[in-house]
Design goal:
346 residues, Rossmann fold, Nuclear Transport Factor 2, Chain: A, 6-stranded mixed beta sheet, binds flavin mononucleotide
Length: 346
């Protein structure tokens, strides 16, 4: 099953009529599901948009561009842009306005450029222009002769029950059907996609399986790591319980045998030891590297010191519910023999 999301704004109902026609076109293709989203509800529908194989954007043309509520949604997608989460998804657009021309092309261009910023793959209307000969008529498909997307006209004294015209609705339906058919054969981007903005290892010398996180993702992961360091320094298991996933594992073999703890076993160990902060220890926290295996999967290498032990931690992180958490902590430590050894289990 492929998923096509149609997100639209409509101040007075006409563009909604056009959006419903697009949806009907998507639905007419077996094996493709259509989700129709009013832009006012975009905040509740990020997951639908993120997991869609294609997104079709629809807005009335207001003042020669997309409407203000639609622009607010476009701007709100900038965190997706930063992570290139919609890269290689299909995209298409439609617009409706009062004038036959009405500067609709500018709106479609704005939508297409937006999709390009996201790295999406734009699907045009794929129709020859209608109503271009003396034997033609305004009943023909694509009577407004657009190529970039579906155009519609709604005369201002007509309600959304009758405007846009039948021809414009059929043109909108055509767009939905075309995107759905292409989606059926499209290898979902977000499945095969390498995450991290540049789309590959970017010449960093690391394996192609790992990428550098974009700045937003890096900052999110570093926030989790900062809490991890704070939790260790203050022996604050309340903080550590936020940082670690409840199902996380803790493992080391540095002592020659495997020590493997659940969080229920690990936190009491931390609670039982005097915190490095209370012993006045200097902090030597450092993030050596952070790499992504995918949009919600990361590996961080960090170092820190507790008493005479210098730790190198391999932290696997996952992003669940817009929050990065450590799912496994595998570590090695070296003893600083120049210091008086202090018994301090990690
Ligand atoms: C603020 C505003 C600006 C508009 N600007 C244009 C325009 O630039 N070109 C045009 O042809 N129609 C323009 N219109 C008319 C609308 O595009 C038209 O009424 C459309 O059908 C409204 O769609 P809706 O009912 O989905 O909101 C404008 C309407 C509004 C309210």
């Amino acid at each position: 099953m492929k998923n096509v999301a149609i997100i639209y704004h409509s101040g007075y109902g006409h563009t909604r009529t056009q959006a419903e026609a697009v949806r009907d076109g998507v639905r007419s293709v077996p094996g493709v599901h259509a989700a129709l989203i009013a832009v006012e509800e975009h905040a509740d529908n990020w997951e639908v948009l993120d997991t869609a194989d294609a997104i079709i954007f629809g807005t009335p043309t207001y003042m020669a561009g997309v409407s203000a509520p639609f622009k607010a949604f476009l701007d709100a997608s900038s965190d997706r842009w930063a992570r290139q989460e919609w890269k290689d998804k299909l995209a298409a657009g439609f617009t409706n306005s009062a004038g036959a021309n009405g500067d609709k092309l500018a709106t479609l261009q704005q939508l297409a450029l937006f999709a390009m910023q996201h790295g999406m793959v734009w699907v045009g209307l794929g129709l020859l222009p209608g109503n271009t000969t003396s034997s033609g008529s305004a009943e023909e498909l694509n009577r407004l002769a657009g190529f970039l997307g579906a155009m519609a006209q709604s005369l201002t004294d007509l309600g959304p029950e009758v405007a846009p015209t039948t021809s414009d609705r059929r043109t909108a339906e055509h767009l939905g059907r075309r995107v759905a058919r292409i989606a059926l054969g499209w290898q979902g981007p977000h499945r095969a996609q390498r995450h991290g903005g540049r789309g590959d290892a970017g010449g960093t010398g690391m394996s192609a399986a790992l990428t550098d996180p974009d700045p937003v993702t890096r900052a999110e992961i570093e926030r989790t790591l900062a809490c991890y360091f704070d939790g260790l320094h203050h022996s604050d298991t309340g903080l550590l319980a936020q940082v670690f996933h409840p199902g996380a594992v803790y493992a080391t073999a540095t002592d020659g045998a495997l020590t493997r703890l659940t969080m229920d076993e690990y936190f009491p160990v931390v609670d039982a030891r005097p915190s490095p902060a209370s012993r006045g220890e200097q902090r030597h926290d450092s993030v050596v590297s952070v790499h992504l295996a995918g949009p919600v999967t990361a590996i961080a290498v960090v170092t820190c010191t507790i008493g005479p032990k210098h730790f190198t931690d391999l932290l696997s992180l996952i992003r669940v519910g817009h929050r990065w958490q450590i799912i496994s902590k595998v570590f090695h430590y070296d003893l600083d023999t120049t210091e008086e050894p202090t018994p301090c289990p990690t």
